[in-house]
Write a structure and sequence with these properties.
The complex is a heterodimer of chains A (581) and B (168).
Chain A lengths: L2 E6 L2 E6 L4 H7 L23 E4 L6 E2 L10 E3 L3 H16 L15 H8 L17 E2 L5 E4 L8 H8 L6 E3 L6 E3 L16 H5 L5 E3 L3 H9 L4 E6 L1 H4 L15 H11 L3 E4 H22 L5 E2 L4 H10 L13 H17 L6 E7 L3 H5 L17 E4 H10 L21 H4 L6 H15 L17 E8 L2 E9 L1 H12 L7 E5 L16 H4 L4 H14 L10 H11 L5 H7 L10
Parallel strand pairs in A: 1-5, 11-12, 11-14, 13-18, 14-15, 17-18
Antiparallel strand pairs in A: 1-2, 3-4, 3-5, 6-7, 7-10, 8-9, 16-17
Chain B lengths: L13 H14 L6 H12 L4 H11 L3 H10 L11 E6 L2 H5 L2 H12 L5 E2 L5 E6 L11 E3 L2 E3 L7 H9 L4
Parallel strand pairs in B: 1-3
Antiparallel strand pairs in B: 1-4, 2-3, 4-5
Helix pairs in contact in B: 1-2, 1-3, 2-3, 3-4
Classes of the chains: A alpha/beta (581), B alpha+beta (168).
Chain lengths: 581, 168
């Protein structure tokens, strides 16, 4: 590696030649504050928070985008630098809705943290006009409050990185604001609900639509039988809200917390994931056998589904018709489970805890009513962040909770279900089952390592029962768009493709705990969370979906065979064409 | 000031669309093609409604929000149509101190529209402009190429009436 010698605050240092000053300073133990900078995503040097003095430079430079060079002398803490950063901050505060006491991001707000760090003493040094700001709650999944927006463009970059690009800066100068085309509300444009903008936001300008109140109401209603299910990726990140390191799996404590909140049953969406694999691998084998539409593409990720409906409607026949694990779990709670326990399904409330904001949209989709016209498969979808909030609202001391197990029946799951939360996991789980079915035996090599890892695009060919199965694994909608363009041109001869909406898969979903840029820029958060899931899978005895004894029972007692008429009616769905403009 | 967005129905013709398509084709593979397309589209249509911006976004394969962002950043772009007669009231310093605000107010009352808007019949549009260099005549307004100076609010109704009755 090409190295250069620099001096930071008089301290000599040798760093790779392609480093920025920000990166070099980090190596020297100096954390230069940033606000607009998100590594690989938003490198625009716009907010001026990270300015430093460089010997010989005419003015202060933005260290996040300024490359180092041989002999460079940098000063990060001079009075000039500190004064400039503080004034930038004070000017941002002058047009900021400073309702920190009631703000959802209080305690986890990068603007608030900087005020403390930089010793801002007064928030109203530059009092004057406030810009008009919109409050947009037109979607099912998020709320935009521009009175808390600092115009850092991180959400805009996240949206563009998803190939969606429905938000951007409108107008200019004092009137500049983040909005949609022709000032339409977000609900009126082709937003896919992924929530990547929320996790990119440093302040409280973007938050998930909070449904904690609805959950609490259901729990307090003695007439209701309230069931909760949790997605695999939630356990890999929830701990971050309670001070655990990023790769901690808090499954046991999470179950204990949910039970203490008063849910009648604590089920695992992993059960639905195993069920999805049964149906999806069956559908795949049928398509291969009968000359159906290939490549078949997974349908677990509602942000991806909505993206396909808006942007590539002509490719909808490639989508598996399987409902997502969330919807399958809900459907089975309100049919099979309700029947077994003799509970009226209209009295059951299914709450799902998801790493995802698009799940809030998914629960309201048509054709998601297995138990009857008026009965939704899932009633309320909350995010990992909302669960953390509920745990606080119920005054539970999370770190002191015991480790508990999910409830019987739909609490059993295999390692295949667990890895759904990471990109490549669904494909690996499907291959584990498809290989056994095709080979007619229990195949022992079950780790498909070529399709693991957080890269946005992976492909492999697996030799199964005399057939070469060509698969691709894609995460992030920019990568999805690239492969879809290839399918359209007839250049993608895959059999099976897994597409996840969020970069890195569900572990990096838009509903996960928000890590500040200071953590994000210097750690692979996606990989750390994914590791927690692969570790759990590896430690399990049952690692193939079809080995789940409750799934076997479900088919014996209720559904018949995978792909049966009844399975189709209850576990499969349909898609609609949506417009892009 | 944020730009007004017209809610009048779009009345583009097939000929205009052909012209715009040719413009888009000409600029499609250039870097920074949104600006020239918007400029030429405004020459064709007189303004940049959502229908026109959507054609540009589709044609250039760029997000519509990006096109809209550019069109709201530069003051040369208008999102409201110009009427047959564009009334432009100078609010430069000299005109302003000589009472242009009252003149403007009388025009908005008479026409029932605000600056940056167009009447529903397409006859008048109204602009509040900066100094046009006729300070000796302050306060001043122009209607298309005609200049009216030393105005008082009482002049307004009579002048507009000429255009309404077709006697201008």
């Amino acid at each position: 590696m090409n190295m250069v010698n620099v001096k930071i605050n008089g301290m000599p240092l040798s760093v790779p030649a392609d480093y920025t000053i920000l990166q070099a300073a980090k190596e020297a133990g100096i954390e230069i504050p940033t606000l607009c900078y998100l590594k690989d995503l938003n490198e625009i040097g716009a907010c001026r928070m990270c300015v430093v003095e460089v010997k010989g430079a005419r003015s202060l430079v933005a260290s996040c985008v300024y490359p180092v060079n041989e002999g460079m002398e940098v000063f990060t803490n001079t009075p000039k630098v500190l004064k400039s950063r503080k004034m930038t901050l004070e000017m941002l505060l002058s047009v900021h809705n400073r309702s920190c006491l009631t703000c959802k991001r209080s305690g986890n707000c990068e603007l608030q943290a900087l005020c403390k760090e930089l010793g801002v003493e007064t928030a109203d040094r530059f009092e004057g006009s406030m810009p008009d700001s919109t409050y947009d709650d037109s979607t099912l999944h998020l709320v935009r409050d521009n009175s808390k927006c600092i115009l850092c463009r991180r959400c805009v970059a996240a949206c563009a990185n998803q190939h969606v690009a429905v938000i951007g800066p409108n107008s200019r100068g004092f009137d500049t604001h983040i909005g949609c085309m022709f000032e339409q509300p977000l609900g009126a444009v082709s937003c896919v609900s992924c929530g990547q903008c929320i996790t990119a936001c440093p302040t409280g300008a973007l938050t998930e639509r909070d449904q904690c109140g609805e959950v609490m109401e259901a729990l307090a209603d003695p007439e209701k039988y309230v069931v909760v299910q949790t997605a695999p990726a939630v356990r890999a990140a929830l701990g971050e809200s309670f001070g655990y390191p990023i790769d901690t799996n808090v499954e046991g404590k999470m179950v204990a917390a949910l039970r203490r909140m008063g849910f009648d049953k604590v089920f695992d969406t992993n059960f639905g994931a195993d069920l999805t694999i049964m149906e999806e691998s069956h559908e795949f084998l049928e398509r291969v056998k009968n000359g159906g539409v290939l490549p078949m593409i997974t349908s677990c990720s509602p942000g991806w589904i909505k993206f396909c409906e808006h942007y590539y409607p002509e490719l909808l026949p490639h989508l598996s018709t399987c409902k997502s694990p969330q919807q399958m779990t809900g459907a089975m709670v309100k049919t099979w489970f309700a029947q077994r326990e003799g509970i009226d399904p209209s009295k059951i409330v299914v709450v799902s805890v998801m790493p995802c904001t698009a799940k809030k949209f998914e629960v309201k989709r048509d054709d998601m009513n297995a138990a009857g016209e008026e009965i939704a498969d899932v009633d309320i979808a909350i995010t990992t962040r909302e669960l953390a909030r509920l745990i606080q609202l119920y005054s539970l001391d999370f770190r002191k909770l015991p480790e508990e197990k999910f409830d019987d029946v739909m609490g059993e799951f295999t390692g295949a279900g667990v890895i759904f939360g990471a990109t490549g996991g669904v494909m690996e789980a499907a291959l584990r089952t498809a290989a056994d079915v095709l080979e007619g035996r229990s195949v022992e090599e079950i780790e498909y390592k070529e399709i693991r890892g957080t890269e946005g695009f992976k492909e492999a060919v697996y030799h199964i029962a005399g057939m070469d199965v060509k698969v691709a694994v894609v995460s992030g909608l920019k990568n999805a768009a690239a492969i879809l363009d290839r399918i359209k041109k007839g250049e993608a001869d895959y059999h099976f493709i897994e597409i996840m909406c969020c970069p890195g898969g569900c572990v990096n979903g838009g509903g996960q705990p928000i890590q500040p840029a200071s953590v994000w820029n210097f750690n692979n958060v996606k990989a750390l969370r994914a590791k927690a899931l692969y570790d759990e899978d590896q430690a399990m005895t049952l690692r193939k979906s079809h080995e789940n004894s409750q799934i076997k029972k479900l088919y014996e007692e209720f559904l018949g065979e995978p792909g049966s008429h009844k399975a189709h009616e209850l576990l499969h769905t349909s898609y609609v064409v949506r417009s892009r403009y | 000031m944020q730009k007004k967005i017209s809610n009048l129905p779009f009345s583009g013709t097939p000929e205009q669309e052909e012209k715009l398509k040719a413009v888009i084709a000409r600029h499609k593979n250039e870097k920074g093609s949104i600006m020239p397309c918007l400029q030429e589209a405004q020459e064709i249509y007189g303004y940049l409604p959502v229908e026109v911006q959507t054609m540009i976004a589709k044609g250039l394969e760029v997000p519509l929000e990006e096109v809209f962002g550019v069109s709201t950043f530069y003051s040369q772009f208008s999102l409201t149509p110009k009427g047959k007669y564009n009334v432009s009231v100078c609010l430069g310093t000299a005109c302003y101190v000589k009472g242009a605000a009252a003149v403007l107010e009388q025009i908005t009352k008479n026409l029932g529209i605000q600056p940056e808007e167009c009447t529903a019949d397409g006859l008048f549009s109204l602009t509040a402009c900066r100094c046009i260099g006729a300070c000796g005549l302050a306060p001043v307004m122009t209607i298309n190429d005609e200049v009216y100076g030393r105005l008082v609010p009482e002049d307004v109704d009579g002048i507009l009436e000429k255009y309404k009755s077709g006697n201008a």
